[in-house]
Amino acid sequence: MKKLTLVLLLFFFAHNFVYSQLTSFTAEDALKVETYTLAEITDGGEYVAGFIRSRMNRMDIDHRRYGDPNYVAPYTSKLLIINSESGDKLHPFENSEVFGAVKWSPDGSKLAIIKYDQTVFNLYVFDVEKQKLKKIKINSEYLISSRSSLVWKTNGEAVILSVRDLGWSLKADSLFKEATIGPKIVYDSKQPHLKWDAIRAHSSLSMLAEVNLKSGKFVKLTDEGTYSSIVITEDGKDLIYGQNYPLKTVYDRKGGTDYELNKLNFQSKEISILEKRTKKRVNRAWNEQNTSYGFADSGKVYIKNIYAEDQKLISFDTVEIVKGDTLKVKFSINRWSPDNRHVLASSKKGYWLIDSETEDMEMVYEFPEDKELAPQQNILGWTPDARYWFMSYSAKDKWERGLVKYDLTSKKTIDLIKDSNLYSRWRFSKNVNKAFYNFSDGNRPNDLYLYQSKSNVIQQLTDLNPWISEKKISKTELVKYRDSDGNELNGILYYPVDYEKGKKYPLVCEIYESFFNNGYSYSMNLIANAGYFGFKPSVHLENGYPGESWIKGITAGINKLIEKGLVDEDKLGVHGTSYGGYATSLLISQTDRFAAAINISGKVNIISFLGDSPRIGTRNYSAAEVGQDRIGQSLWEAPLKYFQTSAVLFADRIKTPHLLLTGDADWNVPAVNSRELYYALRRLGKEVKWVNYFNGGHGAGASSNEADFYDHWSEIMDWYKLHFEKQSDK
User: Fold this and answer.
1) What are 427-481's pLDDT values in tens digits?
2) What is the CA radius of gyration of the chain?
3) pTM of the prediction?
4) Checking CA distances to 139, which of 225, 447, 498, 671 falls within 20 to 30 Å?
5) Residue 519 half-sphere exposure, CB side, CA atoms within 13 Å?
6) 218 and 138 in contact (C-beta within 8 Å)?
7) Are strands 226-232 and 238-246 parallel, antiparallel or unpaired?
8) CB 128, CB 104: distance < 8 Å
9) 8 Å CB contact between 377 and 371
10) Are the beta carbons of 601 and 698 closer than 8 angstroms?
């Protein structure tokens, strides 16, 4: 017994000695944390291609050029190719670059890459076996579009991409300058589009073209238009593409655009219309040959072959006799089965397999009755024999996440991976033998992992931030509580890095909407390294009455932590960015229990905000009426609701010292909106400070340059430190 006690004591002292040798996580560290974004997988999963980025790669963007069709933001990254079998890593380019689309060839031996080279985008091809990079010299004066996708022809000899001519660029420059420097800017309701919507419509224009990768031969396939959803039939004979026709600016997020589906024959260059122009936006699921597609219309499922005139109805009008439900079935489309015969559709009750030939229907997966409590499971891949689905798994009442397999024959679920770690962004190879995903222990940054479904072997493919093991990183905990209406909510608690049990600490809340999953958060780690608890509380937002939700939910979460003996109730701070900044200012107009509050790029007057951001068109109107702001009605239908959710109108009630951080070049929430609260609070004799970063965008100094990023976080930490110390002096 004495020996065991001695061992435990030695372990305790060793652990604490090692931890004491760790250094603080700083703003400089936050900028250099790297993540890997998976972009493309070969069909067999032998190779993956993706981009390594850090926050540093997002610095120095000219936010005043937002909306300029000719502007290419310096959002750089490193292109990394990984051999999933050997673990070998290939870097086609030595340095961080600005990239467009990337796409693997049909046989997985070559990667087509669009990269920005100072003034133009160029096409490259990287041969993974020879490890040879080739720049394709295109025999044309047309320029590759910054928005171009890449589609390989089935023979692997050419790609389809989007191009523009010089006239497009000249007109884009003229439109942007007219809207920003004048000398005269005219806004006219007789024009079908708002001015910035017209600029966006021009930005989407391009022409489809074919480029031979060996000779550089260029063939223009279409005239200028707005194209989407480009696929090539498996036999390589036809190109299928959608064409969109923006008609006018609308305010309800529906309409304003016509949609058309076309087919182009590569040999004859003849274009035929598959679906005539319509106002309905159709979600299509293509079979493997790209010759037939399924879609849902008015709750019914149809299929259509591109070489046939008529569409075929394959779902039947009946009632869904499932646990007494007699409502008519309304379907949405999901995908085709691996045998390319069945279509998977979903209703509110479950997933259905519909035989495209016999029209037989079977519900193969029933959704749980209580969807609010049931784990979230999404289909990721389907085995070639059509028997199993691989599905992501995430419990809603605890941190239990992973991967499961569903047997469509036995209707049973098999657990493959299930634990408290964090799994995200699952991507399966076409043959579903390999699954790639982001993995974190819930506290540290993600890395890319591989799961081999046949052997159940897990392999780590990247280790991007080994240095972080020498830093003090916060530990997380899921906190459950009820708001004043009795709604059960969740919050994520980040512990101070040098936490001592039994000691009470200041608390800083970072607010937005709802939180559940943990994961690396640079902002919460900066808070935790300052010696504070960080807390991301959830709120239950109610349409028509969003303003009340903050006081009901956030204060309840704080009370829970105080009850647990963790938090010094006199040293409470709160901040948020964008919608969270808006919530912060609104919250402190309803309570004075916070020692300090910070609004980062958040509106304070929802009425003036409706027209404050011209570059984002009607977004602010729709956000208030049918979107995130959840007012649910227009200003003229419910003016009092707009008054009640504008913090500036209640500035006289604010007693909390308030810091406002804005970006002068913010195109989303212009600094002039936040400025209103500064002038109001100053006029009322309140303690307020406004810091406006001239080069900052949405996110204030954190979305500016490196120096501003550091200053941004110094302002935040100094504000909390100053006002928490004032509480100690009382």
Assistant:
1) 999 999 999 999 999 999 999 999 999 999 999 999 999 999 999 999 999 999 9
2) 28
3) 0.93
4) 225
5) 12
6) yes
7) antiparallel
8) no
9) no
10) yes
